[in-house]
Design brief:
The chain is about 15% helix and about 35% strand. By secondary structure, the chain is α/β, with parallel strands linked by helices. It is globular, with a radius of gyration of 22 Å. The N terminus is likely disordered.
Length: about 270
């Protein structure tokens, strides 16, 4: 089906194909009829939902990167920050203070803890697991089949209202205007992007209808770039880097396989129930 078009559920499809019977049907108040309708409704609802991407322990971090996390002060991060396999020297611009037991660090720019591969045990094991889970989540998200849309609007998504589902793009994706993701608190969006993903300066992603950032995944093979003063929503799973320019913000997580660069930016991890 195409996103934005009415969903034809299995229940309605079955009903449409059921031949007219010459036999007398049970009254509409019949328990058997009622149970049957309920079961059809449950099947229809279940088949319409896209399974979310399991982040594993990578979901414990607001920002997670393999090659480093840097900030031009002052950025504001709500949630934990981690780097691995690189060491704490790759956490730059934060004015870090290490804990007494050496297992984590703190910073005035982070409401949470900071972790690196060379901190004391059990942090190295924790970080290895988080990076592995991030890579598994990336593989899961990129491997989803039967997308609802392929190269939707040629990747020019500015000014649109996007329904839940799986979107697959063979090249870049850009937001040159404000856009909306509209759905319920159970709906899932997965954007599979073969190229660069970017949002222009001053533009924003808005959620409507109960849509939640924790259920939105942007999986990009190329770099992700967030223009000055822009606002984004969702989980960024990047094979390369993420760059947040001055005054940009995201309600979500930044999980990348090279470096995360923050320039006076705000990263707020999504609540379990928003």
């Amino acid at each position: 089906r195409r996103l934005g078009a009415p969903i034809t559920t299995r229940a309605s499809h079955f009903a449409a194909r059921t031949p007219t019977s010459t036999h007398t049907m049970a009254p509409s108040s019949s328990p058997i009829t009622t149970v049957g309708l309920v079961l059809f409704a449950l099947v229809a609802t279940a088949t319409a939902l896209v399974p979310n991407v399991n982040l594993g322990t990578a979901g414990d971090f607001a920002v997670l990167a393999k090659a480093g996390v840097s900030t031009v002060p002052d950025s504001a991060i709500t949630g934990d920050v981690g780097v691995s396999p690189i060491n704490q020297g790759a956490l730059t611009g934060f004015s870090i203070t290490q804990s007494a037991d050496g297992t984590y660090a703190t910073s005035p720019q982070v409401t949470g803890h900071m972790f690196a591969a060379d901190f004391f045990d059990p942090t190295p094991t924790k970080m290895t697991a988080a990076i592995s889970d991030m890579e598994l989540a990336y593989t899961d998200a990129t491997g989803r089949v039967n997308p609802d849309e392929i190269d939707f609007k040629s990747g020019h998504l500015g000014g649109l209202t996007l329904a839940p589902g799986v979107y697959k793009f063979s090249s870049d994706v850009n937001f040159n205007d404000h856009s909306v993701l509209k759905g319920t608190d159970e709906d899932v969006w997965i954007f599979q992007i073969a190229g660069i993903m970017s949002i222009d300066a001053g533009k924003s992603i808005k959620l409507e209808g109960g849509a939640q950032a924790k259920n939105i995944v942007w999986v990009a093979a190329g770099a992700t770039e967030f223009g000055a003063g822009s606002h984004f929503e969702g989980i960024v799973l990047g094979a390369t880097s993420a760059t947040f320019k001055t005054g940009s913000s995201i309600n979500g997580r930044v999980l990348v396989q090279t470096a995360a660069v923050l320039q006076v930016a705000t990263v707020t991890q999504p609540a379990d129930a928003e």
